[in-house]
Amino acid sequence: MKRIITAIALVATATCGFAQDVDRLIQRDDVERIIKTLSADDMQGRGTFTPGIEKAAKFIDNEFNTIGLKPLVGSTGFKQSFSMVKTSGVAREVVINGASMADDQVAVIANTPFNWSRLSDTEIAMVSADADLQTEYRKFATAGKNSW
Prior knowledge:
Elements: H1 2-18, H2 22-25, H3 28-38, H4 51-66, E1 95-96, E2 99-100, E3 122-123, H5 133-141, E4 146-147
Parallel strand pairs: 3-4
Antiparallel strand pairs: 1-2
């Protein structure tokens, strides 16, 4: 019984001895500096396809190096690359019943290729300004027919 109590006491002492005080590891000034830097206007919200995201990545990389982090074995840095595609229309004109629609009145969401030249099987859907766009979109997306 003495051995069990001694073993428990040693384990408890060792655990407490190796515990780290988070207040000594994380400084309020550092947290504020990092948050202010990453939320600054020149970081452009760290948005995809903006120079701000690259600036933020360089800042984070520098912070990691400053605190002594090392990249994974075989890696040359902390960045992980992946591909994204940004699409944009070449030209667009939407005319409904002879009336041209302004760009801010048109939304196109395409999960699969579509052909706008076949309008006979396409339903035109108008969403009023007071309607919830997400709810209306779900109705059309789940209807199983071409809608625009």
